[in-house]
């Protein structure tokens, strides 16, 4: 008995130390992998910034020249002067603002209806609504183009605003998961006070889903601001171009001014970075809380 009592504490101590070393090693390996993955993801953006400060002779030199020598700061004002970026920025800003505002309104209304209002066929309609997320965008391009042509909206910003503002299945799904977690007692108390669906939605539902609304608003902003394929399909007049489409204008038939294009790309990314950095907390909070509610 004495020998066992003498050995067991030592073995336990050794097992604890081995387990602690194993946990430390696993954490170190995990953090190394995360750092490598983060660098791989951020490398294209770093290369874009460095290329925006080079001239054409430095961009395609082999072996690659990482640090610009000299730094060509004039690429930024030259890129702004080469194309009507002020008008493109204005177009992108007001299109994105309208899409974000109407997406939050329509998606929150649909989410409240699917989550809290019992009507015939609600579940079937919601499943069909979510099924649209599985349809590739390429499938709807031609039908949507024909619809816009029949409406006479081609080469106008309505082709970008209306579809983006009135239909966002992902936003409805995310908000519905959040609304479902709101206690029924709040609605019952409001109904006893004589409140209808509109008042419950406006005074109870909307204030309680602000984190999810913030996350959806930020996602919608980034998606709309960076949208390239839709303006490319529907817009023809340079005065109607958005920022991503205008950047594509730096590519000529035979050559492309990559220095100015990189500089313009860096300028165009600034609003998205500012929005993301300022609202990063809301994105994480909205997604995490919505996941727990669902």
From TrEMBL:
Boundaries of every ABC transmembrane type-1 domain copy: 89-279
Keyword Transport set for record: yes
Keywords assigned by UniProt, alphabetized: Cell membrane, Membrane, Sugar transport, Transmembrane, Transmembrane helix, Transport
Membrane-spanning segments: 28-50, 93-115, 122-146, 158-179, 200-222, 258-279
Subcellular location: Cell membrane
Membrane topology term: Multi-pass membrane protein
Family affiliation: Belongs to the binding-protein-dependent transport system permease family.
This protein's name: Multiple sugar transport system permease protein
Organism listed in the record: Metabacillus niabensis
Organism taxonomic ancestry: Bacteria, Bacillati, Bacillota, Bacilli, Bacillales
